[in-house]
Design brief:
The chain is an alpha/beta fold. The protein is built from 11 helices and 13 strands. The chain is globular, with a radius of gyration of 22 Å.
């Protein structure tokens, strides 16, 4: 009888250790009976975070544009931002779905939740939340050691940039997400945190919408020290050249129009610190030209 009791207690202890409980970015508690073995990533940044956290081999399905690291390109796609193949999701037999509130529609998230598979909401708005995501993904997958190392490396890079640049004279920045119509990003988008780390100030950080449309006149009135935008994708894209006629603006007058890799600045994954490092250098150029 004693032996049976001990065995039962040992089994209970093992099961307790196997259970996983993590709070997602919506504040919801996600509980798994054991670390996830088959994960579907519903956003490119989630795919990058999972690989960095040591769980790349556990991803059985992903959304379009999941293109980093190189191994991510071989993962079967289960849909796009506009449509999900639910039959394929079910066929892949995932034990965890990681969704992105800003990138997946409410209808898509409802459809996935209806499958009865645990759903984790990922929505990092800051560098601190990227670090936290790495640790939580490691917990969900049972890859804590790899995730901890990745989080520590990420934190060290961020603190290095913050120590070097954050106390320098501020630089006002307009981030151009698109030129026609003219869109920017507010203070909730992680690109704004990159600007802050570099000692910059997003001139439209206070707007309520994450990706608000603004007017050329509003940018001219704010007269930023620097304008930052992404690379061109089609011959129709004019990019930062739209500002050249406005020679009275400080950013134009001092040649502080900087084209950067927007994927490294707006995708909330581990590589954002690399994008921030380039941004910091450009904003330091703007300081010297004032």
């Amino acid at each position: 009888m004693k032996a049976l009791l001990c065995a039962a207690l040992a089994l209970c202890a093992t099961l307790a250790q196997a259970a996983v409980s993590v709070t997602d970015d919506s504040g919801k508690q996600v509980v798994l009976a054991r670390p996830a073995q088959r994960v579907i990533s519903m956003a490119p940044h989630v795919t990058e975070l999972l690989f960095a956290a040591g769980g790349g081999a556990r991803i059985v399905g992903a959304m379009n544009y999941s293109d980093y690291p190189e191994a991510a390109r071989t993962i079967p796609l289960i849909g796009s931002n506009s449509q999900i193949d639910l039959e394929r999701v079910i066929a892949l037999k995932p034990d965890l779905l990681i969704v992105w509130q800003s990138g997946n529609t409410a209808r898509q998230i409802e459809q996935l939740a209806s499958l009865g598979i645990p759903v984790f909401h990922s929505e990092p708005h800051s560098f601190a939340q990227v670090e936290s995501s790495l640790l939580r993904f490691g917990r969900l997958l049972g890859t804590d050691k790899a995730a901890g190392a990745a989080a520590a490396q990420f934190r060290a890079k961020v603190e290095g940039l913050r120590t070097r640049y954050a106390a320098r004279p501020p630089v006002s920045v307009f981030y151009q997400a698109w030129d026609n119509p003219l869109f920017t990003l507010n203070g909730e988008q992680i690109a704004s945190d990159a600007i802050r780390v570099c000692g910059g100030r997003n001139i439209f950080a206070g707007l309520k919408t994450i990706a608000p449309q603004v007017s050329v006149e509003a940018v001219i009135q704010a007269d930023p020290d620097a304008i930052v935008g992404g690379k061109l994708y089609t011959p129709q894209d004019r990019g930062l050249s739209i500002w050249q006629p406005y020679r009275g603006m400080r950013a134009v007058r001092h040649n502080n129009l900087f084209t950067l890799d927007e994927e490294l600045l707006t995708r909330p994954g581990p590589r954002i610190v690399d994008g921030a490092a380039v941004l910091c250098l450009r904003l330091d150029e703007a300081r010297r030209r004032r």
